[in-house]
């Protein structure tokens, strides 16, 4: 059962453009995490959001947790080639299990 | 401080063979996890362990067994490998308390022919 749907699945943009990745679910999570994964490596944590409506910024990346704690978005401003990778969201339930989204593969073209 | 380590990095098995994937963490985390990653499917939880001596099934446990040997080590065993188990396997660890951020190993790429 895939609890988290991400969109778009693939995204190819020019350097300097803005983009938003969505992570949606019908389930409520106690927290939600965003990871970036590069080829041949494990995912690396970017941020954790906990409170409904919470917004966190990490340099050019802005993360938002939905008011009902069912969805989240990742916005990248002025994308750079170094942002290229697979972006994964993961929701944590009260039992300390994590459910991962399907992933968004981002390519930023110089 | 190596974080999470996994061995082997690559493995090719024939259908019906068995093998054990090893995972160790040096961050004194209580929880450890095994995931598999397949194209277009994200990461799916196979088994997890909230503490030494306890293990629980995740989303896709069939065909796998696990052993939490001690607080540091969590192994995944395939008793009779099948082509459907061809995948990349990741081990992760986290604290039970707080935000529970997960730290992942580099993965094991397994091919079953």
Order of helices and strands of chain B: EEEEEEEEEEE
Average pLDDT figure of chain B = 92
Mean pLDDT of chain A: 92
User: Biggest β-sheet of chain A, characterized?
Assistant: 6 strands, mixed
Q: Over the alpha carbons, how many angstroms does the gyration radius of chain B reach?
A: 13 Å
Provide the low-confidence segments of chain A as ranges.
Answer: none
Largest interface: A-B, 26 and 27 residues
Helix content of chain B: under 10%
Which overall shape of chain B is indicated by the principal axes computed on the Cα atoms?
globular
What is the general shape of chain A? globular
Largest sheet of chain B, in brief, is: 7 strands, mixed
Radius of gyration of chain A: 13 Å
Order of helices and strands of chain A: EEEEEEEEEEE
Number of strands of chain B: 11
Question: How far is the first residue's CA from the last residue's CA of chain B?
Answer: 36 Å
Helix/strand structural class of chain B? mainly beta
Tally of contiguous helical segments of chain A: 0
Q: Strand content of the residues of chain A, in percent?
A: over 45%
Structural class of chain A: mainly beta
Structure description:
The complex is a heterodimer of chains A (110) and B (113). In chain A, the strands form two sheets. In chain A, strands 2, 4, 5, 9, 10 and 11 form a six-stranded mixed β-sheet that branches. A five-stranded antiparallel β-sheet of chain A has the order 1-3-8-7-6, with no helix packed on it. Chain A has 110 residues and is mainly beta. Chain A has strands spanning 5-7, 10-14, 19-24, 31-37, 44-49, 55-58, 61-65, 71-76, 85-92, 98-100, 104-109. In chain A, 36% of the residues are buried. In chain B, strands 2, 4, 5, 6, 9, 10 and 11 form a seven-stranded mixed β-sheet that branches. Chain B has strands at residues 4-7, 10-13, 19-25, 31-38, 42-49, 56-57, 64-68, 74-78, 87-94, 103-104, 108-112. Chain B is mostly beta strands. The A-B interface holds A 1-2, 4, 6, 9, 31, 33, 40-45, 48, 50, 88, 90, 92, 96-103 and B 4, 31, 33, 35, 40-45, 48, 50, 58-59, 90, 92, 94, 96, 99-107.
């Amino acid at each position: 059962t895939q609890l988290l749907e991400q969109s778009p699945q693939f995204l190819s943009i020019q350097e300097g453009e803005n983009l938003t990745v969505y992570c949606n679910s019908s389930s409520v999570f106690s927290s939600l995490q965003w990871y970036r994964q590069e080829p041949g490596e494990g995912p690396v944590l970017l941020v954790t959001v906990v409170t409904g409506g919470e917004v966190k910024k990490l340099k050019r990346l802005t993360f938002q947790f939905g008011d009902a704690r069912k969805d989240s978005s990742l916005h990248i401003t002025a994308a750079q080639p170094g942002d290229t990778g697979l972006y994964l969201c993961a929701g944590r339930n009260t039992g300390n299990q994590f459910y991962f989204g399907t992933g968004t593969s981002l390519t930023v073209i110089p | 401080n190596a974080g999470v380590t996994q061995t082997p990095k690559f493995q090719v098995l024939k259908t019906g063979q068995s093998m054990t994937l090893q995972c160790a963490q040096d961050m004194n985390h209580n929880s450890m996890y095994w995931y598999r990653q397949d194209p277009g499917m994200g990461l799916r939880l196979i088994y997890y362990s909230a503490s030494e001596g306890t293990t629980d099934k995740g989303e896709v446990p069939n065909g796998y067994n696990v052993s939490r040997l001690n607080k540091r080590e969590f192994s995944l065993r395939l008793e009779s490998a099948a082509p459907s188990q061809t995948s990349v396997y990741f081990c992760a660890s986290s604290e039970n308390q707080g935000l529970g951020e997960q730290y992942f190993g580099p993965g094991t790429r397994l091919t079953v022919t």
